[in-house]
Amino acid sequence: MENKQFFYRRLHSLLGVVPIGIFLIQHLIVNHFAVYGPESFNKAAHFMESLPFRYALEIFVIFLPILFHAVLGVYIVLVAKNNVKRYGFFRNWMFFLQRITGIITLIFIVWHVWETRVQIGLGTQELDYSLMENILSNPVMFGFYVLGIVSTTFHFANGLWSFLVSWGITATPRSQRIATYATLIVFVAITYIGLRALFAFV
After folding, report:
1. Could you tell me if 184 and 156 are in contact, meaning their C-beta atoms sit under 8 angstroms apart?
2. Is the pTM above the cut of 0.90?
3. Which of 15, 50, 111, 139 has a CA 20 to 30 Å removed from the CA of 89?
4. Residue 186 and residue 157 in contact, taking contact as beta carbons nearer than 8 Å
5. Statement: residue 1 has pLDDT above 80
6. Is the dihedral angle over the CA atoms 119, 121, 126, 127 positive or is it negative?
């Protein structure tokens, strides 16, 4: 039983980096084309829409891994023992924030998929610059998207640190300390890309 749980948790960690993390970075980069204007964003978005086997890629490389990661992630949150008050050191706080941002990220992704991908599939919206411009014109939604992006990028970057540890890549205290700085840089970089795109839409 313990071996099974260990396997599932390692798979959970792996999927958070590959393919979900790769998809997150790609998605943020495509959105960042909005910085260069509506036409630039529309070209990038339509290029992604025209990829061969797009539906198969979305189902097997994006949606199913996210579903598995989310379901197991919620279970981990429910059974996790947070000792922030008793042991308030840095990694304990990162452990706690990882669980909180996981829930926020899940809510954000479900809403974002409904507002964009599902509505596009139903034929009520088109994938273009004006879609996100209309959504983000509402100050409440803009604030929600800012929270969602920061939560998602933190969850990925901190999850990347956990992945490196759980897969034995950073086994020593020194390597884990280096990984902390490296993943902090990743967090700052992809958060900047994501937030800059948001401000470009408004």
Report:
1. no
2. yes
3. 15
4. yes
5. no
6. positive
Where does the pLDDT of residue 83 fall: very low under 50, low under 70, confident under 90, or very high at 90 and above? low
d(CA 15, CA 71): 12
Q: In whole angstroms, what separates CA 110 from the centre of its chain?
A: 12
| Alpha carbon of residue 147 to chain centroid | 12
Alpha-carbon distance values, 15 to 24, 62, 148 (Å): 12, 10, 20
User: What gap in Å lies between CA 190 and CA 30, rounded to an integer?
Assistant: 12
User: What would you measure as the largest C-alpha separation in the chain, in angstroms?
Assistant: 54
Please classify residue 45 by burial: count the beta carbons closer than 10 Å to its beta carbon, then call 0-12 exposed, 13-18 middle and 19+ buried: buried
Q: Specify the 3-state DSSP secondary structure of 73.
A: helix
- Minimal CA–CA distance to 148: which of 189, 95, 201, 107? 107
